[in-house]
Specification:
The chain is mainly alpha-helical. The chain is built from twelve helices and eight strands. The chain has a single domain, classed as Alpha/alpha barrel (Glycosyltransferase). The strands form four sheets. It has a two-stranded antiparallel ribbon with strand order 1-2. Strands 3-4 form a two-stranded antiparallel ribbon. Strands 5-6 form a two-stranded antiparallel sheet. InterPro entries: 6-hairpin_glycosidase_sf, C5-epim_C, C5-epimerase.
């Protein structure tokens, strides 16, 4: 497929989901970010850190078993997205804990079963959840791409379902999925070590890692959940190293008027959309609760202040629109 056709398909998809009534998969991703009540930061049987309440209400297509599908339209069509499957399951697990209604647990188990069945070896022999469709982030990702975000969130669902059911298949799948979290990208994993020795978990595996903030945080929660699930010392060490990376690099995500989506290098910095800025605020609050590190609360407060400032909010919107024109 030529670059021109790829770009045309991308912009057709953007127009479809942003400028028509059919929001499709976009409505799933762009829910209202909300932290769960009474987070049990030291108990994986507790609610997942974010409610995913809107995600649980997703009304799009599902397969015959009840596993969610996304319609990406045009050249991509209907596809399974491993990350969405995991988040949909976590949303229903939270509903189960809140209501006691086992129908929600059953829906969560259906998603977890799909994750168990679809954990596959990559070309380095590591177990990953493959996204079997082409996608665009900075560059085009070929079908079969995988992500620290998907790995971590999948582990978070599998660990909770294992604790609830005691079925070993969920624990074993979580063990296999975790291996890639602690292996460098060059060896088939999702971990990247920069020149300063900082350890990152990358949402997208591309030639120059960009350190997407929200994906790193969600992936890291999967590492923490794996620590709670197994007591694995390597997982705890990975957690501590990643927290150190965040503490040392969080100031780089502060544009002075808004938060950055990632640390990609181009003339214009890639600031967060309003949705991702709100997400950063919630995620940093949760990171503070889990890690007890004050820097996370400090930047949460700073980013909230940017959101509350009408001038900075408008400037961020205009800046983001200009960025989209030049780089997408």
């Amino acid at each position: 497929m030529s670059i021109f056709v790829q770009r045309l398909s991308y912009w057709r998809r953007i127009f479809k989901v942003y400028f028509t009534k059919n929001k499709g998969y976009l409505s799933f991703w762009h829910e209202t970010p909300a932290m769960s009540e009474e987070i049990a930061v030291n108990d994986i049987k507790g609610p997942y850190y974010m409610t995913f309440r809107d995600k649980a209400d997703y009304g799009g297509p599902k397969d015959k078993d009840g596993v969610i599908l996304f319609d990406y339209y045009f050249d991509i069509g209907r596809q399974y997205n491993p990350l969405a499957v995991a988040q949909y399951g976590l949303g229903h697990y939270n509903l189960y804990l809140k209501t006691g209604d086992k129908k929600y647990l059953e829906i969560a188990k259906i998603q977890a079963d799909w994750l168990v069945k679809n954990l596959e070896k990559n070309d380095k022999g590591l177990a990953v959840w493959k996204h079997k469709f082409r996608w665009h982030y900075k560059q085009y990702l070929s079908p079969g791409w995988y992500s620290a975000h998907s790995q971590g969130t999948g582990i978070s669902l599998l660990g909770r379902i294992y604790k609830e059911t005691g079925e070993q298949k969920y624990l074993e799948a979580a063990r296999q999925a975790f291996i890639s979290m602690n292996v460098d990208i060059k060896d088939g994993g999702v971990k990247f070590t920069d020149n300063d020795g900082n350890i990152w978990l990358e949402e997208y595996i591309i030639d120059s890692p960009t350190h997407i903030l929200n994906g790193f945080l969600w992936a890291l929660w999967g590492v923490w959940d794996y620590c709670l699930l197994t007591g694995d010392k390597d997982a705890l060490n990975l957690w501590n190293n990643c927290v150190k990376t965040l503490k040392e690099n969080l100031p780089k995500y502060d544009a002075g008027f808004w938060s950055l989506y990632d640390l990609s290098k181009q003339f214009l910095k890639m600031i967060a959309s309003p949705f991702y800025h709100d997400l950063h605020i919630v995620q940093l609050k949760i990171m503070h609760l889990i890690s007890k590190e004050d820097i996370f609360d400090s930047y949460r407060t700073k980013f909230q202040g940017y959101k509350n400032n009408r001038i900075k909010r408008k400037f961020a919107f205009i800046y983001k629109a200009i960025f989209k024109i030049f780089y997408f």
